[in-house]
User: Fold these one by one.
Assistant:
Number 1:
Amino acid sequence: MAVLETILLPREEEQQYSTDNCTAVTPECPVELTIYGYYPSLGANAFFLAIFAICFIANTVLGLRFKTWTYLIAMFFGTLAEAIGYAGRIMLHDNPWSSNGFQIQICCLIIAPAFIAAGVYLTLKHIVLEIGSDFSRLPPRYYTWIFILCDIFSLVLQGAGGGIAATADTDPSLQDTGTNLMIAGIIWQVVTLFIFGGLVGDYAYRAYKRRNNLSASAVKLLGTRRFKFFAASLILAFLTIFARCVYRIAEMVGGWQNDIMQSEPDFIALDSVMILIATLCLTIFHPGIAFPEMQMHGIKNMTGAVNAEKVADPENTPAESTVAVNKGGYFGAA
């Protein structure tokens, strides 16, 4: 057995109960001695599996349709990992001692939000390019590289930690190493999100303070309903991912089998629902639909200069729009 067999009991209880050979719930191996201490809800986990699977399909279709390649990669792996993670929790409903179910859900549900957060990070560069880079403290391209690299580092820490903890067998020190790596990865993600939020807030303040210097196209964009919905969806996605990460830190620092970890309502409210809201925001208000201007960023002309053409604005009349066909996508040159 994996980490499920290494239950952190007081020494006298450890001597009284041996869970090394537990493979199913029995009088000798009650569900209370598993890491989570409960049967994960079949209905709740099936619901989240279904919704994330739908979002996976939707993001794949939209990403191919609008050629948002890097955004597609982030949301593809994020939604896929969430769906697989809830399949693992359904396995735990059938058998709370399932080592495979535990490994699947701990690894997938730990790393999935980092991919979804990448979807948020990828948009800032393009918003800055459209509204005005003069208000930014950093060159627009730096936003993508800095935050995606930070996100990758977080993924490596969380993925390695989850893998080690899930396969630690009966080695408590190895299990602790995995747990500490997961905590470090989530803390790194929180710090990255905090810095990202600070830079976004700073940019918004500087742009608002110098709003009289905004270009006509930027003023027009900021006044559209679709961009307002797009911006609101990004803010909500950011806040829910941040809340989930804070919850996960609190859950992990208490050690295996702590009260927070053994409360499924807390997990559903502060992890499942938070990431679902973020995913729905980034799917329903997909940049290919809500922010089509992004499609032209990264397309260069023969001299290497960025093509300044705008794509069609669905809120304008044909006479007011300059239509440009995007055949290559925009994120490939991020």
Note: The chain has a mean pLDDT of 85.
Number 2:
Amino acid sequence: MENSPKEMPPNDDLGPAMLEAIWIEAAIAIAVMMARLYARIRIVRQVSLDDYLMITSLVFAIISGGIITEGVVQGFGKHIFYLAPHQQIQAIKFAYLSQPFNAMAQCFGRMSFALFLVRVMGITALRRWILYSIICGQFAVNIVFSGLTLAACRPINRYWDPTVSGSCWSPLVIEYAGYSQGAWNVFSDFVLALLPGIIVWSLNMKVTTKIGLVILLALGVFNMIAAIITMVKTKVIAADQDITYNYVILDIWGHKQVDDSHENGSISSFRDPKKMDYTAHSDTSHQVCGEDDFASVGKSEDHILPMHAPNNIRKTTKVSVSYRPSQTSAGSDGYAKEGHLNVNHIVPFDTKPAQPDDRV
């Protein structure tokens, strides 16, 4: 057993409370996922890559929860000083092996939500660049973190069984890798919460609708809070020897991040993008020739977000042109000429702008 402290802590067990929190959140995430798939299949009638990524995230989360459950059976959640040597080995083993699955569950959840934003809001090059950077960064950072976790000791079971001959890296390697992963997760959550709010608030729609959409799309701020708490707790607990007890809080907040990403990403996708009012209205006039001749362009209504559906979008633009009497624009009878031009053209749903601008 580990060297016992001079004053033994109470022989309490955080394991059951941790499992209760993990599996209640998991049940909510599963229910929300089922509702998401129902909406996507029966209402929107389209399942996209972001849906598959969220399903993958849920699978990894369930595997992680199952592994940590076995760890609790072996003693994870109790003070290490009260565990027999074989219990210590098994408790640390299962807690350790759950980490890569939890990291990838978080990763795929954030990737899914970012891809959802690309699908419904990625109409400019800058937005797509930001979101794809988050997607690629999430995958790279979490793959590296998971690889480092599994490669820290050779053979791997030396990590939880000190009697096995072999070698391990310095504990600082995994500690700093955890800080890097946590920092990127916090940054990703911040961007994924802020960017949709900025975009929605700039749209020409009712303030109440804006507020509702901003709240709906910015639920990731709770995920960011969970990521910050995980980082802070990692720094405090890293030097603690009572890992079977104190690391419980890291697992709780790690699973909290996963469940928040599921709920945030799935709830945001319930609304059918084809039925959302993403229209911009304009009424402009400009001078085209001299001081007297000008063209007045009437109101137009154009969709400003890409819509996805089996059919195309038909856009009708009506242009009214008026001419004031002058030597260049008046007809033979001396009166102004007024004409109307109706333009109808088809814009496919998947057509990308030829020259996307760089506006946020």
Note: The longest strand covers residues 279-289.
Number 3:
Amino acid sequence: MSSFHEAAPALLGSALLRNEEKHESLQPTPASCGSCDVDVGALEGGFRYGEVTAIAGANGTGKTTLAFQAIASHLVVHEHGEVALIATTDPPLAHLRDILIVRLQRSRRGPAFTESGYVYKKHVTTTPPTRDTMDRISKMLEHVQISRVFDFAGVVEAVSEFSANVDENARTNDEKLDENDHKGPRSIADSEDEAMDDLSAEQELNALTEDKPNTSKKPAANMLVIDNIANVLGSMMTKSQVQGHALLANFMRSLHQLTRRRHICTLILNAAVGLRSQNAPYHRRPEDQVSVFASITGKPGLGKHFSYLVDTSIFLSTLPRSKDDADVAYGDARESRKYNEVGVIEVLKDRYGGREGRWSAFVVEDGIELRGVPL
């Protein structure tokens, strides 16, 4: 008679390692942010599937543009992959369309040179999108499911619907693969039949049950974007911070399981708090400093607790582009004239990789295209 307190059987480390390697082999290629320099410099390839990534930043730092670039990368590479966009404000779909146009035309554009004073500057010529391009974009957008929500309950419901759709699609794909695998018995050649006769029963069983890589059963890639979770959690946190954190923790736990189980690229956009004021560089607590740049005083919203609920935490901010711009921005004179800025993307946390502490500078050209710049 077994004891009630009998311990569960131990798992071999080799078995756990095989399961982890198998899970990693099924992961799709990371979704690019639209800039090779930023992908290499900060993200080591892009936004990973099977992980929950939080992107925090103030208004105007490029959160939505970065997320839309990732959606565009996903749709270009996985034209049959589903995208769920859960928006707490009206989503700028024309912006996503323009990004898709640029991404599809990028391979068809040729470099040209224009004269600017005594310098010839290289730029890229653009042409109006063709009818075939617009038709392809229309087909891509058919795979983008948009949910407009107004509270946290709406976010939870939208994610539940997305989870049900992903599970249903996965079951359908598995059934189709099983039908293809069992269309008929496999014929065995005479030479193979003779070789099998020489095997013992145990060897025969091992030969038939041997694990072999099957790339045809790689799961479909999907993406989930929540823009912006701070809009629906702010009021709830104000009323009861303890209850708000408890609901958020339960939601993120379920979202993480769904993301990892179905190899989803999940992006959660968040706000920033503690932004710089005129005298902020000299009046702040050291524990509030999350950026590697001393002049950046903001930090992701929803508190430290939220950073422990995601796999990767990314922070977007801005900095003066040159020394002259920095003199205008931080100089004693506090000049009122405008100065040039660049965006900065920093990886504050990376649970499964070594990207923590990496950063890259970028500019957004025409509000659409990301381009890495030296800083």
Note: Residues 110-125, 191-216, 278-282 have pLDDT under 50 and may be disordered.
Number 4:
Amino acid sequence: MSTSRRSADIELAIPSTQRPTRLEGYPSFAQFIASDSDAAIYRKYAHLSARNLLYLQSELHELQERLQGLDREDAKDENNQDAQKVARNWKYYSDPANASACQHRGLQAEIRMKIMEYHEALLLESRILALSSPSSRTLHAFRRWFNLHSVPKLWGRDCRLFDDEQDLVALAPADNDRLNLFLKAYFGWFFRQRDSTMRDGGSSDLFYYPQQRIQTAGAVLSITLSAVLLVGAIVCLLRVANRSMNLRVGLIVLFTCMFALVVGLITNARRAEIFAATAAYAAVLVVFVSNNFKDGVKA
């Protein structure tokens, strides 16, 4: 999880014996979420939202049918000058004394309000669908805190508020960097640290995984791997400079495949970016071997 002070993942630790500063329930729950943005996990009520959109859609469909009915009635008599004027001239359409125009305007006002409500609901739903689900690590810590000592923070129906994992969304942006995820999954013990600022009386302490430390470690590891793959390839090619060309080409193929594998696995590069980076890396090695070969021929 991450806080407004810094980004971090959390994990529950041992219970704290510190005296509570607020009541358990909504007060402590709100403090927990406010203190850590990764704890901003809420229900999206996907079923209710879909049902609301369906109702709005049906209401609009009904209004559309009514409007088309009025249009058909007006089109029946081509000699109806009043209908022709209302259809072509705003002055007649907005005339409060014209009953047909008033009927059209009243229906159009209903449509205007309903379609605004419908479009707003659609746009909001699209934004909700774009939100990611909480990570399994974050959700596990969140649920353990919520049900600490088998006593949920909220009672009544709300005690099962977060049971449906498919209906939960995280408001904080997820860290999708593959290298960062790898470091947290397999070397989290090295990065985690205890933070006393989240202590909530008798609730719990938390282990944090500071995002800045993980990102720094990932950057150092990426730079190291890049340097090793480039310098290591050059050193190996120098060592076999007097050997057969087939061996040198084989080493180029080997290091190029290793480079593509590393870029594809530990970065979020797209396919085109992987191809471009691999091609550039291979070109450097080919140019190096070519120059070295020419120097050897001249000698």
Note: The two ends are 62 Å apart (CA to CA).
